[in-house]
Design goal:
It holds the Pfam family HATPase_c. This protein has about 260 residues and is an alpha+beta fold. The chain folds into 2 domains: about 100 residues, Helix Hairpins; about 150 residues, Heat Shock Protein 90, CATH 3.30.565. The chain has 6 helices and 7 strands. The strands form 2 sheets. The chain has a 5-stranded mixed beta sheet. A two-stranded antiparallel sheet has the order 1-3. A hairpin with a 2-residue loop joins β4 and β5. α1 packs antiparallel against α2, α1 crosses α6 and α4 packs antiparallel against α6. The protein starts with a helix and ends in a 5-residue tail after the last strand.
Length: about 260
């Protein structure tokens, strides 16, 4: 009888410790997710800041020119209409940038149908000015339009982490010849694979084995270790897919595999 009671108590203690450990793990994952999210939003804001400067300058110039035209007699209507068209185009450009940021920042986890090609282009668009400063170009090879029923917001987050990771790797490598980041998308039956590769600094073979651990980072100085860890969780737990490091050097290549329809 005593032995039975002992094992019952032992089992209760064990269950309590397991639940306590699981709770701590969940809290840690939540903190890491928030840290990764803040890193991503910071990078996105930097990109949007650069992206808005050009249309704002163009808008200011067009308005100034219009003011000068209105002071002339007779008024050059054709030139004035041209300036109005420039203003409208620049406003539409800024609106597009703000909408991309709003979409990314939204915590929406609803499943919807969208074009993956356009999702990739929107992330390239927001980082373009920031990368251009370092003479880094993102090259996206698309053969055909691919549509998916998934959670677009999470895919955007993962792609942003991978692009920032590639940028950091390129900046760390001395005497680099190829400063391009390559994005490829391919459809395989019921899945789609988005690959991002670069010829930046390589990832150590030993480090590559634990690249998605919370305590690891893929970059010596500017790494997005938490971002990769969080991206792995998003790909497996939220998107029913996986994020893998296919190659750790020449080029370094990460691949995101997700189902075309997450509902099935």
């Amino acid at each position: 009888m005593c032995i039975f009671v002992f094992f019952v108590v032992l089992n209760l203690i064990y269950g309590f410790l397991i639940r306590k450990n699981n709770k701590k793990t969940e809290e840690m994952e939540l903190l890491l997710a928030r840290k990764s999210r803040l890193n991503e939003i910071g990078s996105l804001i930097t990109g949007i800041n650069h992206q808005l400067k050009q249309p704002l300058n163009s808008l200011n110039l067009a308005i100034s020119n219009s003011e000068l035209l209105l002071q002339k007699n007779p008024i050059d209507i054709e030139m004035l209409l041209k300036n109005m068209s420039i203003c409208k185009n620049q406003i539409n450009l800024m609106n597009k940038t703000i909408n991309i940021f709003r979409s990314f920042y939204s915590p929406n986890e609803d499943i919807s149908e969208f074009c993956l090609n356009e999702t990739i282009k929107s992330i390239i668009y927001t980082t373009n000015s920031q990368f251009f400063k370092y003479n880094i170009t993102v090259k996206f090879e698309e053969k055909s339009k691919i549509f998916a029923n998934s959670i677009e917001n999470f895919i955007q987050q993962i792609l942003l982490v991978l692009l920032q990771n590639s940028k950091d790797a390129i900046l760390e490598k001395k005497d680099i010849v190829d400063k391009n980041i390559y994005i490829n998308i391919e459809k395989f039956d019921k899945d789609v694979i988005i690959s991002i590769s670069d010829f930046g600094i390589e990832i150590d073979a030993r480090q590559a084995k634990n690249i998605f651990n919370a305590s690891k980072t893929s970059s010596k100085k500017l790494g997005f270790g938490f971002g990769l860890y969080f991206s792995k969780i998003l790909s497996t737990k939220k998107l029913d897919g996986d994020l893998v490091l296919e190659n750790h050097k020449n080029p370094t290549k990460f691949s995101l595999k997700i189902p075309l329809d997450i509902r099935k």
